[in-house]
From TrEMBL:
Keyword ATP-binding: yes
Domain Signal transduction histidine kinase subgroup 3 dimerisation and phosphoacceptor stretches: 188-254
Listed PANTHER family: NITRATE/NITRITE SENSOR PROTEIN NARX-RELATED (PTHR24421), NITRATE_NITRITE SENSOR PROTEIN NARQ (PTHR24421:SF10)
Keyword list, A-Z: ATP-binding, Kinase, Membrane, Nucleotide-binding, Phosphoprotein, Transferase, Transmembrane, Transmembrane helix, Two-component regulatory system
Protein name: histidine kinase
Reaction(s) catalysed by this chain's protein: ATP + protein L-histidine = ADP + protein N-phospho-L-histidine
GO MF, one annotated term: kinase activity
Lineage of the species this protein comes from: Bacteria, Bacillati, Actinomycetota, Actinomycetes, Micrococcales
Sequence ranges of Low complexity compositional bias: 343-359
Length: 413
């Protein structure tokens, strides 16, 4: 049971009990002490109980109903020296409950107006009684009615003011905590950006400069080796550009937030730098509708997979296949399927290459990136000794109908 439902049940129970009690007391007193007709006494008691029952949810209606019931009870009853008059005790209790709760809900003006109307009616009836009752008891009844009604309205208004102040204080505290959290996040992002700049960006700059100048520093290099250094320098320049954009985002640079991100249009250049065959079969209709965030995810998956292939399978042939399909049955916009596959490397290439670090988190990071968009990714060895990565990326983030790639053991030979 939820908290709101428990509160509603508790409210119904409390006010329902008060309403039933007032019904019994007011009906019996009206018919016996104040000489009202049984039907009149029961009807007036029902109106007062109904007002008490409705005041937590319909305070305006409750105030109007209890005021009408109180005035009608004064006219219907007979003055008697044996009981309080002109406002009976049961009626006074109903007035106090309704006026107080209505004031808690911000209806203190209408409650004050109703209290004034009941008081003026009581004064008029007292003046018309012609001195049949002792003046002291009547005046005491009127004073008690006015004073207690004012106290009920004042207490209800005070409770509402305290609630409003507490709500404003809680909101201010929440905003303060939120601003503090934002500041801490900004400081942490700045620290990460500083560390990345000092370590990664500096190392990439050295690699780019050395690779770009190798052709001139070593004139005896063979043309194919010099071309290899040029490609290495180009790759380092692209990585530096992306690194600067990422550093700008981490430093909360407004211009960097809008910096262009890699998309499907950069896939041919990425494949060419990695010397991988690219087969792009993604329909134009899906390509034009594909969200930029999803395009970036495809690019990063291809980039990371080709990088893994270069590290773990040096010299092996690699291929990238991009396809797509729509989902007319499920109503989804469809998804793009990207497959990166490399063949088994030769033993001589593996022996000549430096040992790759197996402690990376590339596949895990790709799976998290694709999964955050509502897609899926699988990676595993192929029967021919190579390796394959299959990712399904939705055209629109969290779009239905993306499906699931085959498990690694289901990869075709």
């Amino acid at each position: 049971m939820t908290r709101s439902r428990r509160a509603a049940i508790w409210t119904w129970s409390v006010f329902g009990g008060v309403a039933v009690t007032l019904l019994a007391v007011a009906a019996s007193l009206g018919a016996t002490v104040y000489q009202q007709q049984v039907g009149e006494a029961l009807t007036l008691a029902l109106l007062q109980s109904l007002a008490v029952l409705l005041v937590p949810w319909l305070p305006r209606w409750a105030v109007g109903i209890v005021a009408v019931a109180a005035v009608s009870g004064m006219y219907a009853g007979s003055a008697t020296p044996d009981a309080p008059w002109p406002v009976p005790v049961a009626t006074l209790l109903a007035l106090l409950v309704v006026f107080g709760v209505a004031s808690v809900h911000g209806r203190w003006i209408i409650s004050s107006a109703a209290a004034a109307g009941v008081g003026l009616t009581a004064v008029g009836l007292t003046a018309g009684a012609g001195g049949e009752l002792p003046a002291g008891s009547v005046i005491s009844n009127l004073i008690v009615t006015v004073v207690l009604s004012g106290i009920a309205i004042g207490v209800g208004t005070l409770i509402r003011s305290i609630r409003t102040a507490r709500g404003a204080l809680a909101e201010a505290r929440e905003l303060t905590e939120l601003e503090l959290a934002k500041r801490q996040i900004a400081e942490e992002r700045t620290r990460i950006a500083r560390e990345m700049h000092d370590v990664v960006a500096h190392g990439m700059s050295v690699i780019q400069v050395q690779a770009a100048s190798a052709r001139y520093r070593y004139p005896e290099l063979r043309p194919e080796v010099a071309d290899e250094f040029d490609e290495l320098a180009a790759t380092a320049r692209v990585a530096l550009g992306e690194m600067r954009a990422l550093l700008g985002v981490l430093r909360a640079d407004d211009d960097a937030e809008h910096a262009p991100q890699p998309s499907l249009a950069e896939l041919p250049e990425l494949a060419a730098r990695s010397r991988a065959a690219l087969e792009d079969q993604l329909p134009v209709a899906l390509r034009t509708r594909m969200d930029p965030v999803c395009q970036l995810a495809v690019y990063r998956v291809v980039q990371e997979s080709l990088g893994n292939a270069a590290r773990h399978a040096p010299g092996a042939a690699a291929s990238v296949t991009l396809t797509g399909h729509s989902e007319p049955r499920s109503g989804g916009p469809g998804s793009a399927r990207v497959t990166i596959r490399n063949a088994s490397p030769s033993a001589s290439a593996v022996a000549a290459a430096p040992a790759a670090d197996p402690s990376g988190h590339g596949i895990r990071g790709m799976r998290e990136r694709v999964g955050a968009l509502g897609g899926s990714l699988a990676a595993g060895p192929t029967p021919d000794g190579g390796f394959q990565v299959v990712a399904l990326v939705p055209i629109i983030p969290d779009a239905p109908g993306a499906g699931h790639p085959p498990a690694p053991e289901e990869f075709p030979a």
